[in-house]
Amino acid sequence: MKRLRALAGALTGWSERDEQPRRQVGVLPTRPGPDGALQVMLITSRETRRWVIPKGWPMKGLKNYEAAAREAYEEAGLIGRVGKRAIGSYFYRKRLKSRDTVLCQVQVFRLDVRKQLKTWPEQHEREGHWFTVQEAAEAVTEVGLAALIRATGAHGAESRKS
């Protein structure tokens, strides 16, 4: 945990003397592409339009992986099988409506997507796109998220070999 905090500090300028990170939950949506290679869906954030994963605040009454799967439905219309164990986490700075920023740590769960619905709550607020693992890792700005995407791609390649 100490190494993770040190890495977060190096990547975001955060130190333990600063505020404690706020916790969020998210999913890394995956599916096999036409060639069998793993694909990752990214969506645009509402404010800055940068590429991100579906994520949000934990929800009362739901386990973290269930809340993360709910975000995938609300933000991208994705339905699938969500892993109950997090594949990792990453840090980023979230801009609030007040224009202040807060440090967030996102606990990420893998979502094996079965389908995308024709309509969903935030359909007109975001764009979504399926990327190769390499393209997705290059499209995101958060170094920790890029590392999680690459690790998921490497794990997917290993499991296809066996």
TrEMBL record:
Q: Name one Pfam family in it.
A: NUDIX
Cofactor(s), names only, from the UniProt record? Mg(2+)
Which keywords belong to this entry? Hydrolase, Magnesium, Metal-binding
**Stretches assigned to the Nudix hydrolase domain:** 20-153
Checking InterPro entries in the record gives: DDP-like_NUDIX, NUDIX_hydrolase-like_dom_sf, NUDIX_hydrolase_dom
**Source species, domain of life:** Bacteria
What PANTHER family does the annotation carry?
DIPHOSPHOINOSITOL POLYPHOSPHATE PHOSPHOHYDROLASE (PTHR12629), DIPHOSPHOINOSITOL-POLYPHOSPHATE DIPHOSPHATASE (PTHR12629:SF0)
Output this protein's name.
Answer: Nudix hydrolase domain-containing protein
What species is this protein from?
Answer: Methylobacterium crusticola
